[in-house]
Amino acid sequence: MLYRKVILAIADGVGDRPHYAINNKTPLELAHTPNIDHLARSGITGIMDLISPGIPVGTDMGHLILFGYQPQDYPGRGPIEALGIGMEIKPTDIVVRCNFATVDKKGIVVDRRAGRIREKTNEIARAINGLVLEGGVEVFFKEATEHRAVLVLRGTGLSDKVSDSDPKAPNDGQPYLLVKPIDSSEEAKRTACLINKFLMKAHAILLNHPVNIERVQNGKLPANFILTRGAGQMAKLEPVTEALHFKGSCIAGESTVLGVAKLAGFKTLTDPRMTGNIDTDIVLKAKLAVEEIADSDMVYVHYKAPDVKGHDNEPLEKTRAIELFDDMVGMIMQDLPENAYLALAADHSTPCEIGEHTGDPVPILIYGPGIRKDHITQYNEMDCAHGGLGRLTGKSFIDTLHGLMGYVKKQGN
Question: Which of 208, 250, 254, 345 has the fewest CB atoms below 10 angstroms from its CB?
Answer without folding.
Answer: 208
